[in-house]
Amino acid sequence: MKQLAEVLQSGNISEFVSSEYTVYPKSIAKAGGTTIAIVKTAEGKKLFAVGDDDLYDALVGEPAQGGEGKLCALSHANRLTINNFFPNTAPRAFGTKVATMGLGDRLGIASPGHIETIRGKDIRPVLAQQSIRELALTGRTYEDVLDAAAYAVLQEGYTDGYGADGDHLKKIEDIEYALRLGFTMLTLDCSEKIDNSIAGASDEELAAKYEALPASLREQYESRYLGEAAAVPGATLAFTKESLVKDVLIYHEAINFMEEIYNRYIATLDREVDFEISIDETETPTSPEAHYLVANELRHRGVSIFSMAPRFCGEFQKGIDYIGDIAQFERELASHAAIAVHFGYKLSIHSGSDKFSVFPLIGQYTKGLFHLKTAGTNWLEAVRVVASENPSLYRRMHQYALDHFEEATAYYHVTTDLSAIAPLESVTDEQLPDYMNENNARQLLHITYGLLLQAKNEDGSLTFADEFFQTLYDREDVFVEGLKRHIGKHLELLGK
Ligand SMILES: O=C(O)[C@@H](O)[C@H](O)[C@H](O)C(=O)CO
Question: Could you name the active-site residues (predicted)?
Answer without folding.
Answer: 167 (proton acceptor), 276 (proton donor)
